[in-house]
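Meet our chain:
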Amino acid sequence: MTMEGDRITADEVKVRMDRGEPIAFADARDARSWAESDFKLPRAVRVPPYDIEPHADDLPHDRTIVVYAAGADDSTAVRVAQGLRNRGFRDVRVLEGGFEQWRLSGYPLDRRAMRAGYRP
């Protein structure tokens, strides 16, 4: 598990973003949660929980990385956060409440790329 200081709330992230601090999001939702949602946190990079290595290079090393899973069960986000730390990322936090808490807080979301063959 992570230490308490490794977690961050949606409100804390939003305040830091509003101050202009560079934040990068790592979307660690499982395949089903990812497939069922057309949204992600702003400019989030998809980092599948069981395939971290090829996606870690898509994240910047010079900012706080906020890892999130689908909801309150953040064990997936914790696993990805630890994997990123093991790959040299120094400031990695787990978003409390995950994607669902961010969405319920009314904070910005990006529409993610539509699935192949999708027609609105």
Summary: Helices lie at 10-18, 31-35, 53-56, 75-86, 98-104. Confidence is low (pLDDT under 50) at residues 116-120. The longest helix spans residues 75-86.
